[in-house]
Model the fold of this input.
Amino acid sequence: SAVSERPLEEHADMVSSLPCHTITGVSSLKLCCYQGFWIPESWAAATAAMQRHFEPRLDDVIVSSLPKCGTTWLVALTFATMVRRVYPPGAADHPLRRLNPHQCLPFMEGLFATRRQGKLEGLPSPRLMNTHMPLQMIPHAIAAPGGGRGCRVIYICREPKDMAVSTWHYFRRAFPELAFSDVVDLLCDGTMLCGPFWDHILGYWRASAASPGSVLFLRYEQLLLDPADGVRRLARFLGLPFSADEETDGIVRGIVELCSLRTLSAMEPNRTGYVVPRLKLPRQALFRKGMAGDWKNHMTPEMACRMDSIVADRFHTTGLTF
Ligand code: A3P
Done:
């Protein structure tokens, strides 16, 4: 239809009326408040188009996260788990040895923002894709018409103070003037990328409690402690549990090893090129320390206290603790 051929233009007026702000030192990244969340201006029309035109399939798998919470790792683990019958983790020609993990699957809002959403429709099932959108914006992704289960969503959540540190390290690769205290302020105000972070996390947390077959809620810190357990959980969630033979053959261990920070960060496709060419963010910046508690090396006690009290305030009735 004429509408779906012009999915971005039909939202131009709406986008121009949104409240916006620019992060100090990051002038090329303008954020707009769309339906209660601060997203890049270039994603606003894309998100509206996605809300209208994305057609979930029952066997779709969506990896979702706030930026800097372990997206790349979860993408790699999920991809390696789903393709393991065709590409066992030890295969010399494994896509993860040739490509950056983000090149192994489509980024949903990125496709809609660049008018390539047709690519999603053309993908064979089961599709694997990722998004940074809050679930509140794409509720139809997990509920099929008639009330049944829609896509399967795997969400990764990270300790917010570590997310703050990781966010700053990442963006300062392209924007050296970005101040850490500004990142903390923006996160606390809820106006950082994809924020408020508490609403983003809670949307997925509540959906995973209400529909555990639709949303798997993973924690970055738990994955660090026992990645093999995380891989088994996600395989079961996808309806692709590891067989006894696969366990004996060390497939789980192989996936964990292939997707480890050490292995991935040493690979050629992850040492060169850009994640976002326009912003000159190098792929190398996706792999840093990969630890829990790095906030202790960066935050003043006041900053940590401020973030902790926001977290306590927003989460105390939810059953989610950090
Ligand atoms: P740090 O900056 O704290 O080191 P995202 O992929 O969402 O952008 O998240 C990036 C964070 O995940 C970075 O955290 C990065 O080091 C970490 N990370 C990337 N690959 C990882 C892996 N294979 N295992 C564990 N952590 C990883």
